[in-house]
Amino acid sequence: MFGFTKTTMVDRADALPGRDTPMPVPERHEVLGTPLTPPYPEGAQIAEFGMGCFWGVERTFWRLGAENGIITTAVGYAGGYTPNPTYEEVCTGLTGHTEAVRVVFDPDRISYTDLLKVFWENHDPTQGMRQGNDVGTQYRSMILCHDDAQRAAAEASRDAFQPVLTRMGYGPITTEIVPATPFYFAEPYHQQYLSEAKNPNGYCGVGGTGATCPVGVAPADS
C-alpha cells in the first residue's frame, strides 16, 4: 500500500481479510496448569493489556502467581480488524492489532486496580506506536476494558500516573483505553514463550519507566 508505514494505523477497509478458523492453542497453561481458553471458573474476571512484546508481558503477570489471584494468562492479538490473524500478518501492520495479554483473575484475591498498577509500571506508556526498540502498531500501549467499571478504573489510573511521568521528564501518555475487542489467541509457540520449559534463557526487553503509579494496593494475601 503506497505510503503505508508500520507506525500508521491501517484503515479497516485496507486490513488483511483473515480467516474464520481460530488458532488452536494448548489446553493448559505451561506454568500454572490452568485452562487457557474459556470457560473460566465462576466469578473470574478478564483483564487485557497491550504493553509491547507480549512474551515478557505475559511472564510479568503469570509471575504474580495463583496465590495472588492469577488464574491463567495467554497471549494474543486485539484492538484491530483482521479476524484470527497469524503472527506474520500482525507483523506487517496490516491487521491493526496490538500484541495483547489476557489475564484471568480472581477479584477476591487481586483487584483490577492492582493489575493496572502492574500495567503502568512495567512499560513506557508514552511511546506511541512502539515500545523500546520494537517499532510498529503491534507494540502500542492499550487497555481493553470489559465493562464500564474497568474503563473508569483505567482512566483514573492514567490520570493519576501522568503527573508522576511528567515530573520525571516523560511526555503525554499515549495508551489507548478502549472497549474490549475480540481477543484472538496467538500461535501455540507464543503461549508462555518465556517459561522454563520452552525458553529458559529467553529474553524480551519489556521494561518500565522507573516510575511508581500511585494507585492500587498489595494483593490481598501478600
UniProtKB/TrEMBL annotation:
<protein>
    <recommendedName>
        <fullName>Peptide methionine sulfoxide reductase MsrA</fullName>
        <ecNumber>1.8.4.11</ecNumber>
    </recommendedName>
</protein>
<dbReference type="InterPro" id="IPR050162">
    <property type="entry name" value="MsrA_MetSO_reductase"/>
</dbReference>
<dbReference type="GO" id="GO:0005737">
    <property type="term" value="C:cytoplasm"/>
</dbReference>
<dbReference type="InterPro" id="IPR036509">
    <property type="entry name" value="Met_Sox_Rdtase_MsrA_sf"/>
</dbReference>
<comment type="function">
    <text>Has an important function as a repair enzyme for proteins that have been inactivated by oxidation. Catalyzes the reversible oxidation-reduction of methionine sulfoxide in proteins to methionine.</text>
</comment>
<dbReference type="GO" id="GO:0034599">
    <property type="term" value="P:cellular response to oxidative stress"/>
</dbReference>
<feature type="domain" description="Peptide methionine sulphoxide reductase MsrA">
    <location>
        <begin position="48"/>
        <end position="204"/>
    </location>
</feature>
<dbReference type="InterPro" id="IPR002569">
    <property type="entry name" value="Met_Sox_Rdtase_MsrA_dom"/>
</dbReference>
<feature type="active site">
    <location>
        <position position="53"/>
    </location>
</feature>
<dbReference type="GO" id="GO:0033744">
    <property type="term" value="F:L-methionine:thioredoxin-disulfide S-oxidoreductase activity"/>
</dbReference>
<comment type="similarity">
    <text>Belongs to the MsrA Met sulfoxide reductase family.</text>
</comment>
<dbReference type="GO" id="GO:0008113">
    <property type="term" value="F:peptide-methionine (S)-S-oxide reductase activity"/>
</dbReference>
<dbReference type="Pfam" id="PF01625">
    <property type="entry name" value="PMSR"/>
</dbReference>
<keyword id="KW-0560">Oxidoreductase</keyword>
